[in-house]
Design goal:
The protein is about 60% helix and about 15% strand. By secondary structure, the protein is α+β, with helices and mostly antiparallel strands. Strands 1-2-5-3-4 form a 5-stranded mixed β-sheet.
Length: about 230
């Protein structure tokens, strides 16, 4: 092969290598652009999810502060407490509201409910669009008269907690205007938990007195928030 042919062949090979390197550089730029676009999209989705989570948190806090501000001065004299995380106002030692082992509210309890419940609903009204339910929860200690065993105690207390929560629900219904009765039936429910959710002392022992309680708990529409977050993430 003549020298000029060898030079021509070498030049063609160099040209092919240059073209290949240009192609690789172009592909790298394309991949880089795709990666940048994808990272930006992920960051935007994360920001949307964060905004939804912040909105949910802020709504929870707003409900808590509305209840706290309304009842701050009343809770101590009622022997009641408010749980910030659960949005629950608990009337502790429900034996002070009922005769021992009975479900009929006493005069003191009805007086407290007459003051409490209308103000409770009024404080929640601005947030009703985000509330799926209000539960009146009956709780008991694990104790029951006589040595009947843990399981028998549980079911005896279950019936008692359900009867007490229903009694409170029935009474507060009498405090609601007739035109609001239907929405009350749809929104407010009575639930009995027996001794399944005891209040504990710091050392882990059951606090029997505080375990016996009736609580009004706000159930926010967290399910729709979770669905919205998942839809934004997909």
């Amino acid at each position: 092969m003549r020298p000029e042919q060898l030079g021509l062949q070498a030049g063609n090979e160099d040209s092919e290598w240059v073209s290949l390197s240009d192609l690789m550089a172009g592909l790298m730029m394309v991949f880089l652009c795709i990666a940048v676009v994808m990272m930006r999209s992920v960051m935007e989705e994360r920001e949307k999810i964060r905004a939804l989570a912040v909105d949910y948190r802020d709504n929870q806090l707003a409900i808590y502060h509305a209840l706290h501000d309304e009842f701050e001065n009343d809770l101590p004299r009622w022997g009641a407490t408010i749980d910030k995380e659960k949005l629950a106002i608990a009337f502790n030692n429900s034996d002070a509201m009922f005769q021992a082992g009975a479900s009929e509210m006493n005069t003191a309890a009805t007086k407290v409910m007459r003051s409490f419940f209308p103000r409770y609903i009024r404080a929640l009204k601005p947030y009703m669009d985000s509330i799926s339910a209000i539960h009146i929860e009956g709780h008991t200690s694990s104790e029951w008269g006589g040595d009947t065993g843990a399981q028998t105690n549980y079911f005896n207390n279950l019936a008692l907690s359900q009867e007490r929560s229903r009694a409170v629900l029935h009474f507060v219904h009498t405090l609601v205007p007739a035109e609001e009765a239907a929405s009350m039936r749809a929104m407010v429910a009575a639930v009995g938990y027996s001794s399944a959710r005891p209040v504990l002392h710091p050392d882990g022992r059951e606090d029997a007195e505080k375990s016996r309680r009736v609580a009004f708990r706000v159930i926010t529409d967290s399910e729709s928030h979770i669905h919205q977050i998942l839809e934004e993430a997909l």
